[in-house]
Description:
Layout lengths: L1 H28 L4 H11 L5 H14 L12 H31 L3 E2 L2 E2 L1 H12 L5 H29 L4 H31 L8 H28 L4 H28 L2 H4 L5 H5 L4 H9 L2 H10 L7 H14 L1 H21 L5 H15 L4
Antiparallel strand pairs: 1-2
Amino acid sequence: MAESTRLVDLVQDAIDDFLDQRQPHLAGIAPELSPFIDYSRDLLRGGKRFRALFCYWGWQAVSGRVDDADPLPGTTEDEDLRAAVLAAGALEIFHAAALVHDDIIDNSDTRRGGSAVHRRFEAAHRDNGWTGDATGFGRSAAMLLGDLLLAWSEEAFDAALALLSSPGAVAAARAEFNRMRTEVMVGQYLDILDEQAWRSHPESEQLSRAHRVIVYKSAKYSVEAPLVIGAALGGGTIDELSALRSFGLPLGIAYQLRDDLLGVFGDPGVTGKPSGDDLREGKRTVLIALARTKLPANAVRFLDELLGDRGLTELQVRMLQDAIRDSGAVEHVERVIRHNVELATDALKDAPITTSAREQLIRLTDTVIVRSA
């Protein structure tokens, strides 16, 4: 994993350089804009960097670059590597924007063990004794920072494309990036829609609707899209991109199913989120949909009554956790995770990609699935 570790460092350097270049512009407009840079830096220093890693290994899967040979400065190979690293950074910036907006939508207090961005702006309002509503200010300011991060991710991705010599690779990578943005936004809407409108749909649709949210809000965006964007940057063929999609989508589904389990049962000291956070937010996940099919009617009513209650006590959270666990839904989700991992690894066996990328993607599969945060 030495090259992946090196990549994470290169991506962090690219992100830091990007923010350094934009800091004087904001400072020249007004000193009060310093939180936009400071909060962005804090948000972009953490995380698992899965999207950056999948982007890079998607590029490496089709580029055929020799892993242990550093490209010569100024060569086409050097420019291609810079493009892959900068595109990986752009994906991380896009992810930061999504996290800021997601925390506003979910009314979350924490992110990665610290205060969510809208809570930081809210605290600044209170600490400085400004007039008006601190909560409203925090949400509005964070929404604008999220929008700015979206714009910056676009700038970073454009800078990556400018390094490519192949117009075909530029067009293909741009198309995949655009597709990703659309799908994650509508996937987010479907998520919040199902939290509110689930009673309007037949019981028989609950599981399929939850699965649809997983695919478009997370699975494609977390694994498949970064892989394919990276491969498109490297000039990948239709067959190469198709093979990476066949790997990326089931692994992305498994990734989100693991997240759903952690959202209900995760250790807050590790996840950086309160225990049972998804229960308080009322997430209508595959885990919940499966539990509802397995529980007796009175237990389903109990689950439906409490799910989404922001004021859930620790005792109520434990009661819901016990009900979900006792239903057998957790074991069912674990089986689905294993099945999707098998689909992903099978897709790699005869995939027309480099040997080094195949080996690293298999290793990343374990990292993505066997985790506690």
